[in-house]
Amino acid sequence: MLRLCILLFKRETRLLFRRPMELANPLVFFALVISLFPLAIGPESRLLATIAPGVVWVAALLAVLLSLDGLFRSDYEDGSLEQWVLAPQPLSLLVLIKVLAHWLCSGLALVLLSPLLGLMLGLPERTLGVLLLSLLLGTPVLSLLGAVGAALTVGLKRGGLLLALLILPLYIPVLILGSGALQASLQGLPTAGYLWWLASLMVLAVSLAPLAIAAGLKISVAE
Amino acid sequence: MNWTWFHKWGSPKWFYEMSGAWLRALAWAAAVLLLLGTVWGLAIAPQDYQQGNSFRIIYIHVPAAFLAQSCYLMLAVAGVIGLVWKMKLADVALQCAAPIGASMTFIALLTGAVWGKPTWGTWWVWDARLTSMLILLFLYFGVIALSQAISNRDSAAKACAVLSIVGVINLPIIKYSVEWWNTLHQPATFKITEKPAMPMEMWLPLLVMVLGFYCFFAAVLLMRMRLEVLKRESRTRWVRAEVEGRA
Amino acid sequence: MGELSKLARYRVTETLLEARDLACERDLRLLFAQLNFAVQPGELLQVLGPNGSGKTSLLRILAGLMPAAGGQVLLNGRAIETQRSELARQLLWLGHAPGIKGLLSAEENLGWLTALHEGASREQIWQALAAVGLRGFEDVPCHTLSAGQQRRVGLARLHLPGPKLWILDEPFTALDVQAVAALEQHLQQHCAHGGAVILTTHHPLALPADSYRRLDLTQGAAC
């Protein structure tokens, strides 16, 4: 079973890296959305620093969501999903590994890019650690929850907007905790509480979301 | 344990025959309770010493908010029954209840905003309860949009079931995080949550209204479900007999 | 044990897959109802019927990808819903889209698909690819292959160790005359070794009429 998991992980990362542009698109989107805010609000750095926690997190939310739209689409179209559903191995384990591979290739890059964009928004250096850590804990939750929506909408012709409609309300706790942590750090307040909450949300998502993703995929394949 | 009652619920024909009588009873109960509660609440109950007459909107706001939340819980329960025991009637209930729940949420939001004007001086305040309600409305929209988007009836019901179960697991997390967010950002405003204890004369009509709203909800839900069952079973003999008998 | 006595032994064992009172409904239209048939090890069953008669739906129901509107599918005498993992171990499913990734090479694709079941060595995969006439195309990305060649990559799974019950949806699509003949031969051989095949095709099989059975969905009975 472990061997199979490693094989699947290799296969998924290989597939992702053979389309490098598709990995880069969410990152460019992330950077682009963040640079829209100074243009819309004005270049004053104090104002930007106060809204930066919210801006970074909203942009991260949207970028992750955008990258997930096609998560299962090609698998659905080329019949891979049928093979997965009919495989003797538990589907929830297979999708967990797939989402993990996807997060490592796209979500992690987004996390690593965020300090740079944080600095551009005028966040002080001392907050960057919290920014990194909160995104590191939060984005896997975003990926897993988004994958539930992607699994439910994979059979639909125009699933993208619907996916956002289904999933964005579920992202709210992560948004509140993530940007809250950053705001607290900006004001010099302790942030450990937020980060622990984010970590427990991640544990919850890792343990429950794969079941929902598997159920969603089975429903979409049955159609 | 005797499971016959459970299997009976799996039969659309049995449901249709029985629900007619329930529908009448519920509709009457809803009408009487709502009328009683409205007159009692708007005319007889005393004024609030702080808010004057404007508090009377709680007789609509609170029952609608109650119902909005319990309806979402009902969606998830119906979803579990539909997914685990493959009961078609649970699918019907889920898809019929979602729009009613959404409209109740909308009523709760609207009355909350109207109430906000005399209380806070503005139509909208990012109060924790109102914000949670708004998110709940979005969750309802998600379920409705998904059920409309999937053309296959059974797949749509199952997909909505999964979505509402995920939503119900998230709902307490959303509620707590929103409350937390609210205490962080808005320390000193008048909160609906921290009203002084309500005297009995105000409280009793509210109870009547809540019961009336639940009966109304159940009646509307049954009506919608009966129609949907007729549509789904339109090929069967009993539905043809039923429809021709009426015509 | 000789080939013949082996065959005889398979004949007397209980049925492999059985459909009881199966019904299928698509968009409020009844495609078939009260469908009864059984498949024994060593049998080849061809499902016939005009477009839209529910051939693919029947195969999907048999494979457990889609719920039936009524009736049951039994595997070794037990309903498939109660033994999904057992069905998954015994079944090889090739749908309209065979689950081949365009970005991966033929070898990578087959390596993953066989890993879901018993797994296969590199040599076995190369041999299987040679058997379907793809020698020299082992490490070319599949999207550069022609439609017929891609189809053959999927069919190469039939030459690798794996489950005994094959359900194939239109396996002859896009194949040339030689490949069709070779596949027919291979299917017959599989049945002679105790395997079972259920397939749909518009193409009349060039096998002796008594070596396989036909199920006509317009008549609703196996003959």
Automatic annotation (TrEMBL), chain A:
Origin: domain of life: Bacteria
Pfam families with a match to the protein in the record: CcmB
Topology in the lipid bilayer: Multi-pass membrane protein
Keywords: Cell inner membrane, Cell membrane, Cytochrome c-type biogenesis, Membrane, Transmembrane, Transmembrane helix, Transport
Listed transmembrane segments: 21-41, 47-72, 93-117, 129-154, 161-182, 194-217
Annotated localization: Cell inner membrane
Lineage, opening ranks: Bacteria, Pseudomonadati, Pseudomonadota, Gammaproteobacteria, Pseudomonadales
Protein name: Heme exporter protein B
GO BP terms: cytochrome c biosynthetic process; cytochrome complex assembly
Family: Belongs to the CcmB/CycW/HelB family.
Major subcellular location class: membrane
Automatic annotation (TrEMBL), chain B:
Transmembrane segments: 57-85, 92-116, 128-147, 159-178, 202-222
Organism of derivation: Atopomonas hussainii
Membrane topology: Multi-pass membrane protein
Domain Cytochrome c assembly protein: 27-185
Role played: Required for the export of heme to the periplasm for the biogenesis of c-type cytochromes.
NCBIfam families named among the record's database cross-references: ccmC (TIGR01191)
A GO term from the CC aspect: plasma membrane
Keywords: Cell inner membrane, Cell membrane, Cytochrome c-type biogenesis, Membrane, Transmembrane, Transmembrane helix, Transport
Family to which this protein belongs: Belongs to the CcmC/CycZ/HelC family.
UniProt subcellular location: Cell inner membrane; Membrane
Protein name: Heme exporter protein C
Domain of life: Bacteria
Gene Ontology molecular function terms on file: heme binding; heme transmembrane transporter activity
Keyword match Membrane: yes
InterPro entries, alphabetized: Cyt_c_assembly, Cyt_c_biogenesis_CcmC, Cyt_c_biogenesis_CcsA/CcmC
Chain segments annotated as coiled-coil in the UniProt record: none
TrEMBL record, chain C:
Keyword Signal listed: no
A Pfam family reported for this protein in Swiss-Prot or TrEMBL: ABC_tran
Keywords on record: ATP-binding, Cytochrome c-type biogenesis, Membrane, Nucleotide-binding, Translocase, Transport
Gene3D superfamilies, per database record: P-loop containing nucleotide triphosphate hydrolases (3.40.50.300)
InterPro entries, sorted: AAA+_ATPase, ABC_transporter-like_ATP-bd, ABC_transptr_haem_export_CcmA, P-loop_NTPase
Any Gene Ontology biological process: cytochrome complex assembly
ABC transporter domain segment(s): 17-222
GO molecular function: ATP binding; ATP hydrolysis activity; transmembrane transporter activity
Protein name as it appears in the record: Heme exporter protein A
